[in-house]
Design brief:
about 250 residues; alpha/beta; Metallo-beta-lactamase, Chain A; 7 helices; globular; NDM-1-like; RibonucZ/Hydroxyglut_hydro
Amino acid sequence: MKIHTIDGFIQSIYLVEYPDKLLLLDGCSRADHDIVIDYIEHTLKRSRFDLALILVTHMHPDHAGGASLLAKSCSAKIATSNAPGQWYSGFDGMLMHWTDMLLAAYVGTRKGKRWQLRYYPRYLKADHYLADGMTVPDFAEWQIMHTPGHTDRDIAVFHLPSQRIYVADLMVKVKGKLIAPFPLFYPKRYCHSLLAIKLLAPRSVLLAHEGEIPFSEIDFDGLIDSAPKVPVTHWRSIKHKVKHVMGLR
C-alpha cells in the first residue's frame, strides 16, 4: 500500500495505491476531476478504471465536489457515512450549498488559483453507507470512524497496519496553529470526535488542508479546550457581522 498526495484545488488529495486497485480517500473538488485522472494515467501509468472506490467524508465542495463525476468517469463506487438524510436538504440547505461553493471559489483565489465556481450535486447517491467501526468495502485494512462536529456526517478512515488516519477537516492550521474548522455545527460532538482520535493514538494524522502530521505533535487537549462552545456557522457569522456594523455589540 502506498499513499500518494496530490495538490488539489484547495485541499490535499490522498490516493491509495494497491497492485490491483486504487482508493480515493475523499471526493475532492469538482475542479480536481481532471487532475486525479491525469495522475492515475500519466504519473502512476494505471488505468482510470483501477479506481475502485471513492470515500466522501462529508458534503463540502472540496470533499464531495468531484465524487459523482469521478465515479462516472472511472466506473468507481462511492462510500460515505450512514448519517440519515441529505446534508443540503431543504431551502436552507440549498442556500448553504451555494454559499459553500462560493466560499470554496474564494479560498481558491486566496491560494492563487483561477476563480472557479464549480457546481456539484447537493444530494449524494452512494453505493455504500458506512457505520462507525465498519471496514471499507474491498479495502479491509481501512476502518471507518464517525467524527461529527464540522457537520453531522463527518468520517475519518484509519489504516490499521500503518496506524495512520485521515481525518479530513477535523482540524485545520491557521497561522501555524491547529484549530477547529469553520463551520462547526455541533461543538459537543466535535470535542467527542477529538477525544476519540486522541484515545486511538495513531502514528500520524493526515489532514485535508495541511498534509500528514505525527500524532505526537498535535495538542488534542488544547484543541478541545479552545474549541467553540456554541455553533459557529454561516448564519451566525453573518448575524455577528451585521450587529457589529450596526454598533449593536
